[in-house]
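During data preparation, a discrete fold description was generated, and the record follows.
___
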Amino acid sequence: MVNIFNSRAKRPSHYAYAVVTGAASGIGRSFALELAKRGSAVVCADMNLPAAEETAAQIIESGGNAYPVHCDVGEATQVEQLAHQSESLLGHPVTLVINNAGVGLGGKFDELTLEDWKWCMDVNLWGVIHGCHYFVPGFKQQGGGAIINVASAASFTAAPEMSAYNVTKAGVRALSETLYAELRKDNIRVNVLCPTLVPTNIIKDGRIPARYSKLADNMLMNYAMTTSDAVAKLTLNRLDKGELYTTPQVDAKLFWLMKRAAPNLYADMLGLSYKFIG
């Protein structure tokens, strides 16, 4: 097999053949569209096939190559099939996988059911594990590749009433940090995206208590400090530079610095704040 990762192409070779999960809307759609602009052929995977077809249609209308595929990332067999199907559709082994599919879940810890936890874990954490599990061996075989895992600033902010969501995103960040170190020798790049508020459908499509859903959706759509398009561009640029972390917004960076500098003080302040507003 020709090692395309030693080529001198204008664009990094990991752009050539991409798979994006959760590509039907939000950050996933922005990743797919931005990749197409950078010359990628893109498999647009999502549980919502009609919406994934809309993403693919936008790429095709712009002169690119895209293939919509139905996939529930929480099901290992479906992600395994996605890996095989993507190679067939693209006519070439995949060179970049973006594990973006995710769901929102909020509520007090004692109000969440174990079924809620399983639903969130299956998509947010197991979906990323499945994506890495089924694509990394191919990357090793072909001499390189790239992974972007979409986590959240929730992976380190640990806000109250988001226990399940926080746990899944912390797991994604930990997995990404591990793979970044482990796969360097295999010429496989890893980046983990940790944004705060980005306008997407995660609130509308998630399981958020009624007492918070309207407020959360309003904040998401009206007070976000960036857009999904800007996040996708920044993340791909940081991947190009071999960077591990992408924290797009100023507030995410501040939370990261505060917690690293004084973790106990940060936790105390979070608890006191919740005491008055929770």
Remarks:
- Residues 7-277 form a domain with the Rossmann fold fold (CATH 3.40.50.720).
- The mean pLDDT is 88.
- The chain is about 55% helix and 15% strand.
- The CA atoms of residues 42 and 66 lie 5 Å apart.
